[in-house]
Amino acid sequence: MKKQVLLIEDDDALRKSLAQILDLEGITVIQANGFTQARHTIRANFAGVILSDIRMPQKDGFDVLSYVQSVDTELPVVMLTGEADVPMALRAMKEGAYDFLEKPCASTTLLDVLTRALHHRALVTHTRQIEQQINRNDTAAMNFPGPSQVTRDLRSNLRHIAPQPLHVHLFGEAGSGKKLAAHTIHSLSPDRDVFITFNLENPFEALEIPSGPANVSLKNLDVISPDTQDKILELLNNHDLRLITSSVQSVEQLKAAGFSKTLLSALDPVEINVPSLAQRKKDLPVLFESLVRQTCRSLNTHMPQIPQSIYAEVIAKNWEGNQPALRNFATTVAVGLNVHKPQMEEMPLADQMDTFERLVLSETLKNNNGKAGAAAVALGLPRKTFYDRLARYDLRPKDFKTH
Description:
Strand order of the largest sheet: 2-1-3-4-5
Order of helices and strands: EHEHEHEHEHHHEHEEHEHHEHHHHHH
Largest sheet: 5 strands, parallel
CATH architecture of the largest domain: 3-Layer(aba) Sandwich
CATH topology of the largest domain: Rossmann fold
CATH superfamily of the largest domain: P-loop containing nucleotide triphosphate hydrolases
Distance between the termini: 22 Å
Number of strands: 10
Mean pLDDT: 85
Shape: elongated
CATH class of the largest domain: Alpha Beta
Number of domains: 3
Number of helices: 17
């Protein structure tokens, strides 16, 4: 565990005394005489904790606390004051302080509080490192980015089902990403290296399966012929196969449409709904940007600056073609063609205003690297009002941090 403390104290003698106490305990101390000097050290990846006096000239300890909260809500701040002020202590804790101590403070008490804070910070940073490593190798996160609840549920379902020895049926609108979901399941499968895809709309496509365990994707299950059904049942009896079927229809809809129950009974698949883009409105900005980046990487070109007006149009449009339509528009933007803005769908005024407000909040957070305090200042909003707006649109500052 890295033992590091940013000590903010305007009293030079007291600061040096506290630094000496911490140094004797093997804690690395970064000294600052106030907010201005300290702010350059306060970063989201700061491995230590902060020990700050409250009463300081110009910007006080609450300014420090507010800034820290805007940078990283999980960065512990221990507050020091020379007065036994209960309301001040309550305010400090309410605004996110890790702990509150009175000066003069016994060395054992100070060290105990800082040790607990350092252990807490070490756990946070370790967890983040693990999450970053998982995300870098998480096909579900890469293939289905976005903060919406339906997409979070989809990612969770794909991760959960991938290692299970169960057949899967993916259903959803055309272009919603069922093929991508099937590839995601395969990439997260720990014991099946072979992946084969058959489009059942093509009656002449031969169903040839190699030996050994395999994932087999059957697209457009709703148009499967009786002969092909028999062939699949035969393959299931003679090979170690896990079928990942897909259709615009759910299993119940297939049964209602007269689909043969023999194959469905043999498969008894787990169903996963792949949501349309109309259900993923909150994902559109990040999904669109991801598609533009993918195109730029494949063409070895620079990522263009995307104007807010384009993001606004992307959010407002009802992408009936789903991902292929959005991908096509992203390609147009990536290659720098003159963009014909997608036509705005007719929306009630209140919905249009909500869309615009969410876009402005998202862009401001993005421009300020997810720092809520800085974003609130940029928009001229009180912090409480700003956080209320974020909660309304399910926006989280940490989702907009780039480093």
